[in-house]
## 1
Amino acid sequence: MVKRKQAGGVQFSRDPLNLTNVHSRTQDGFLNQKAVGVEPNGDKGVTLTTRKAKKNPNRPAHSMNEIKFGPGASNRKIYKAIAAHTAKNNYRPDLRADALARASAIKYSQKPKKETPEKKPRGAKARKAQEASA
């Protein structure tokens, strides 16, 4: 848990299965039996991590499931797979919407940024001034 006094005392969570990073009981992944997490891959991809209902509580590593989407996977394929996986395995619908939103934000952040084009002079006076200076 992280508290930020600059942001008005908002409490955040660093739990990887918390999709909104808000410290609350409904969003915490370690409290709920079924949880979903979406994280970026190292190679410009997305990883979907799900936690199954515990069959054997003495082996917690066996309750985690990871699906990795590489950089070549299209956005539509990733979003459809996340929605299908969470719906077919009976995860909460609000988690499905949050997982899609997080995957979308991750994919958007991984896009290369375009350089801003050089500004063109507007108007006859500006063009003349630029030609005179050049």
## 2
Amino acid sequence: MEAIAMYENKNKIPRDWINYAISGSAPNGFWQRLERGEIKMDKEFFRGFNADLRNETLWKKYHKSFRNSKKKLKDVANPTQLGDHVSLKAEAADTRPTDQDRGAQGAPLPDEQLARSEGPSSDRPSLSKLAKDTTIGDPVSIESEDVAQNGGSDSTPVSGRSTSPSSRSPLEATSTLKSLPPLPNIDGESLFWSMMAHSRNPDPYIFPALLRLKNLPPKEKPVLAALSNTVIFPPGHPYNRLSDPPESDPRSHFDIFIASAEVGMRKPDPKMYQLALEKIDKLDREKGGSGVKAGDCLFVDDIGQNLKTARDLGMKTIRVILGKTWRAVKELEQTTGIELMDEKTRRSKL
């Protein structure tokens, strides 16, 4: 998420540390519990969130696994919220937004959608037949995710030799611990609200594509479902107000909208995907279709682990790269056979 990269740069915080700290606190960190609706967004949450961002054990593992080995952390967190679809994934330098791509990465389109034709009896194309099991770039960085979740391996090659505990001398190990810099001083509440504000702007490519899908003739329009990690804002907060105009409310663009904080589950929990499939299947049958299976669905997301769960369930997937979201729209066009870009955008990007 661009807001996190900006915060880290402004406050001279090591790159990807915020992502690493939030991901490393799963499954029961304060961010994850907030997204599951288990706790309120109050002083206690921000106190706990600050503590997660200052976890000394994770700080040591971060330096050992990433800074010393110069590895890049990718696709290991998915802190998102209702109406503010934020991905806390920092991108490598070559995925920074260009002037044309710049804008909030949290569009009214959640960082994910399930799309499917409304039934085999209709004349419109079936996404299950059109979808290809392809992704933009590397859809899942399993190595990075495993390292982040397990705290890294016990050894990090440096200058061609092992630095595992068994190969390092006591002097080397002591020196490494003493050279560890102090934990960054992060104001979790300030960070949180800057992310919420930044994420409320529509993505310049994903959102127009969503509108085009929504406004297709009934016989051509696929069923649109959103599977979104969310938070619940405090009573009376401005973000709780109905969108003006109503069309800017992300829920208004989907046939089905599943919010994590309302159902007590968050991606990449397979149970949340199963719930979505059940709702889509029910809607399809109500409209005269023969039902929906995972293979009939096309899942779009920017987080590798979320995409992996979808594929494990049998769905087709497209990965969104933040800063290059137009690429996902292009692939969605190729997959569905539906034009989703205007001519000006197409000429500038294709």
